[in-house]
Amino acid sequence: MAALGTKDLSLDQANAALHASINKAEEIGTSMDIAVVDAGGNLKAFARMGASTSRRRPERLDCST
């Protein structure tokens, strides 16, 4: 199989993308969970902003039945 010719995303590049995303979210007045991944889908950087509600944990699950 031939190589794809892609370069790996450096940590500095991932952090730059993360900070740009945070700045944009603040500019538009929203909180977000932001993930930066490389070409292989591997997580390189992640940030969860203060009031993000993209994944709420249930208050309590009733498992008694």
Report strand %. 15-25%
For the largest beta sheet, what order do the strands appear in spatially?
Answer: 1-2
End-to-end Cα distance: 53 Å
Shape: elongated
Number-wise, the strands total: 2
The computed structural class is: alpha+beta
Largest sheet: 2 strands, antiparallel
What integer is the average pLDDT?
79
- Please report the number of helical segments: 1
Q: How helical, in percent, are the residues?
A: 25-40%
The low-pLDDT segments are none
- Gyration radius (Cα, Å) is 17 Å
Observed structural traits:
2 strands, single chain, 65 residues, 1 helix, two-stranded antiparallel ribbon, 17% strand, alpha+beta
Notes on the structure:
- By secondary structure, the protein is of the alpha+beta class.
- Helices cover 26% and strands 17% of the residues.
- It contains one helix and two strands, in the order αββ.
- Strands 1-2 form a two-stranded antiparallel sheet.
- β1 and β2 form a beta hairpin.
- The mean pLDDT is 79.
Write the layout of secondary structure elements.
Layout: H1 11-27, E1 33-37, E2 43-48
Antiparallel strand pairs: 1-2
Can you summarize this structure?
With 65 residues, the protein is of the alpha+beta class.
